[in-house]
Structure formats: structure tokens, C-alpha cells
Amino acid sequence: MSDTTDSKPVLDSSDLVAAIPYAAYLDIRIEQADDGEARVYRMPYRDDLIGSPRLPALHGGTVASLLELAMQFEVLIAEAQTRLPYPVDFSIDYWRSAAAADCWCRCRLIRSGRRIAQVQAECWQEDRERPIAFARADFLLRAVDGASEAE
């Protein structure tokens, strides 16, 4: 079943997205699946996100940005206290070209400790069973004042 039709906006996400200018530029939307399992992150399609007009295909950088930002948002939302996730490692596997359509992403928080969070994310378009990219990231969790959390 595709997640493109069974999600609804998370009402308090606009301030979070607006706080990150590139996330606002990409118009990333944080939505809750009707099944209540997890958050879904959506990047609506726009012509200016096309990287290859010949295909047409979305620019790979926008897909990578969606994945990285979604993982950061997932850590921010899941954390009980306010700590900023600073990316220290990020890898992405592109499985197919991203067509001229909305992109959807779902994240899985693998570990969130005192200092490090590890997250995986999967991105798809029309069919969740046919992902276009998969990413993994490690984030250093820093206190809001910029100081690293002490062990």
C-alpha cells in the first residue's frame, strides 16, 4: 500500500521546518500516517527541483537533502530534551532515478544515546515497495548552547 494517500499533516511541524531555511525552501512536510506507526516526510514536486530535464528526474541533491533533513527532524522530534543533531556521518544509496513527482521518506531511529544518534531512512515516490534511495546517518547530539553533552 502506498503512503501517498493515507497520511495527514503533523500540525506542529511548520515552526520546525521554518527554522531550517533549506527545509523551508524544499517545502518539506512532516505528516503522520493514519496507521499511527511513524512519521512520514514529504517533499512536494516542483519544476525547479529537476536536475535532468531530459528524463526528467529530480536532482540527486534534493533527494539526499530530504533524507538528511528528515533524519535530523526524526531525532529532534523523538528526543525528550532539546539537543541539536549535528551530522558527523552520512551515506546514501541511490537505487533508481527520482521521477518528476512528490518524494516520501520514512525514518527509523536506530539508537539515541547521550551523545550520538543513529538513523536510517528510505525514500520512495508512488510506491513504497519501490524505493528510490536509502540513507544512514550518525548525529552528534549537542546541547542547545552548542556544548557537547557530558557523559
TrEMBL record:
Pfam families: 4HBT_3. GO terms for molecular function: thiolester hydrolase activity. Residues 57-139 form the Acyl-CoA thioesterase-like N-terminal HotDog domain. InterPro entries: HotDog_dom_sf, PAAI_dom, TesB_ACOT8-like_N. This is Thioesterase superfamily protein. It comes from Salinisphaera shabanensis E1L3A.
